[in-house]
Write a structure and sequence with these properties.
Elements (H helix, E strand, L loop, with lengths): L5 H4 L2 H8 L5 H13 L4 H11 L3 H10 L11 E6 L2 H5 L2 H12 L12 E6 L11 E3 L2 E3 L7 H11 L5
Parallel strand pairs: 1-2
Antiparallel strand pairs: 1-3, 3-4
This protein binds FE2/S2 (inorganic) cluster.
FE2/S2 (inorganic) cluster binds next to helix 6.
């Protein structure tokens, strides 16, 4: 599916109709958009503003207040470093540093080419494997800074399509 015309793929009128009389309706409308696209494209935020008669500034206030909302498309490779207590004590900060060295972005950032995002996450329940890194949900345990390059190489290779 291409994304060249987001507005025609999502029926903004239907979303507004569905939520307009509900309290917290703006948040629910934005959730519907993010459910579909994985983020809230500016084009659709503008369409909601216009059709629901809500100032665009108000929409962006909500979008930036709730960290849940994303304003950019999800990166192709989503790197997460667990910074729960066990992982933190076993070197998660060094892993974040090494990731920054290797791909040039810090925790909470998104590479400009849309390829990588890096986030820290709370305990993901594999403390026995601390420190833990995941790439697109695949878990790597007992990670050392020296492993980061090969983990990234391996995960990007896994997404190649053969044939
Ligand atoms: S603290 Fe990292 S998995 Fe539990």
């Amino acid at each position: 599916m291409t994304q060249e015309n987001l507005a025609t793929k999502m029926d903004v009128n239907a979303i507004i109709e569905k939520w307009k009389n509900v309290s917290g309706s703006l948040v629910m409308m934005l959730h519907s958009v993010q459910d579909q696209y994985g983020y809230v494209p500016r084009e659709l935020a503008m369409e909601i503003a216009q059709k629901a008669n809500i100032p665009l500034a108000r929409i962006y206030e909500v979008l930036t207040f709730y960290h849940f909302f994303k304003l950019t498309p999800p990166a192709k490779y989503q790197v997460a470093v667990c910074t729960g207590t066990a992982c933190y004590l076993k070197g998660a900060p060094d892993l974040l540093k090494e990731i920054e060295n290797v791909i040039g972005i810090k925790e909470g950032e998104h590479s400009l080419d849309g390829k990588y995002s890096v986030n820290s996450v709370r305990c993901i329940g594999c403390c026995g494997l601390a420190p833990v890194v995941s790439v697109n949900g695949k878990i790597y345990g007992q990670v050392k800074p020296a492993d980061i390059k090969s983990i990234l190489r391996e995960s990007t290779k896994g997404e190649e399509h053969h044939g």
